[in-house]
Structures are given as structure tokens and as C-alpha cells.
Amino acid sequence: MTMELRILGWLQGLMLGLILAAPLLSPAYMPWGVQMLFALSAFQLRQADRRWALRPGMTGWISHIRMAPSRMLPWAASAVVALIADGQGAAAPGAILLAALTCELLLYPLLTRLIGGWQWRRAALAMIGLIAACAIVPAGAMQNIAMFGLGVTGCLFWLRGPDGDLRATLAAFGGGLSAIILAFAMPATMMLAFPLAVISLIVGCAQATTVRRPLLPWTGHYGAGTGWLQRLRSRPS
User: Fold this and answer.
1) Integer Cα distance of 168 and 188 in angstroms
2) Is residue 237 within 8 Å of 26, Cβ to Cβ?
3) What is the H or E stretch that residue 216 is in?
4) How far apart are CA 143 and CA 131, in angstroms?
5) pLDDT tens figures, 107-142
6) d(CA 196, CA 176)
């Protein structure tokens, strides 16, 4: 299985760059950027983790924790910038560091064990619950943790979803665009529309930029049930 998530990688780098440049741009938007970065990082982390199952006992946690220090560097840099910019809410330095440590060392290994075998329907229900949770949790570290959980669950939903289906891609982008329009038309819905827009756009970008099956060269003849490009069945993720 080959995977290309270049747009998500570029988007994650862009969000990190904007957060680091927040003191020069607009510190007021930094909490939104931090929350989006948590969702993006969680999605990318789950997508990159190709383990079918964790090792038994504590070794599964240990193997994940050993990889965590390198992933903490962007969060540490973001916390330093938040300190300079006097970030508030989800962009407070303590909120960023507390959420990053909780998500990397506790929440992600726990979610991997709890929801690793879920199919897309259960993942979709969990996403709905987490979108609601993102809207009602107190401002600060809990917002970042909820967005991280939404990113992990959203990636699981995408992995279990339709493979290369144009309708799914359009539905994801349509949901994100609808949430953005709703937020501007009814500002009171911003706390609910924001996580919906974020996860919809992330799933849409992943669906639109992914090759999840080996490509075959075209054949020069027609045949019964063959055609120019032989279809392949998707492997389970």
C-alpha cells in the first residue's frame, strides 16, 4: 500500500509556520491555529502508525513513548512562541504543553487500544460525539485534547472509509465548506462549526491526495472483464 498525503503535510507545516509567526501577525487567531494543528498532528500520527496491533502489556506504550521526543519539538517551539505572544485559552503555553504530553504519552496509546478495530460507522459516531465535545469543553488544554482525539478518530474513519471514491471526497469538502458558511452566517455556532470544518477538510484533503492501491500500467487490449486498467481490491488498513 502506498500513501501520499502531501497536501496535509504542507498544511501542517503552514499551520506550524503561522503559529510561530503569530506574534508578528495576529495573536488573536493563535488559539484556532493551535487547535487545528492538534487535529492535523493526530491525523498524521495515526496514518503513519501502520502497526496492526500494539505489543502486549507495557511494551506497546514504551515503543510509542520512545518515538515521542522528536514529536514534542514542534509543541515546545509553539509553547515558546505562545509565551512571547501572551497566548490565551488553547494557545496558552501551559495548555499547549499539557495537552501535548497528555496526547502523546497517554491518549494516543489508549485510543489505539480502544478503537483500533472499529469500522467506519462506529468511528463516525465517535467523531460526532467529539465534535460536540470540542464545542463544550472549557477553553485551554481540554480543547486541544478534544481536537487531538477528533483527529485520531477522523483518521480511523478515513482509513475504514471508501477507497478513492470521488463522492466521499466531495462530501468531505462540502461538509467543511458548509461549516465555514454556517460559522460566518451564525457566529454563535462557531464553537461547533470550527471542529466540523477542520475534520471535514482534513479528511477531504487526505481522500483527494492519496493513492491507496498499487498502480498498474495500461494494457493494450480489451478483454472480457479486463479493460485498459485492471481494478484492484483495496487492502484493509
Assistant:
1) 28
2) no
3) none
4) 11
5) 988 888 888 788 888 999 999 999 999 999 998 999
6) 7
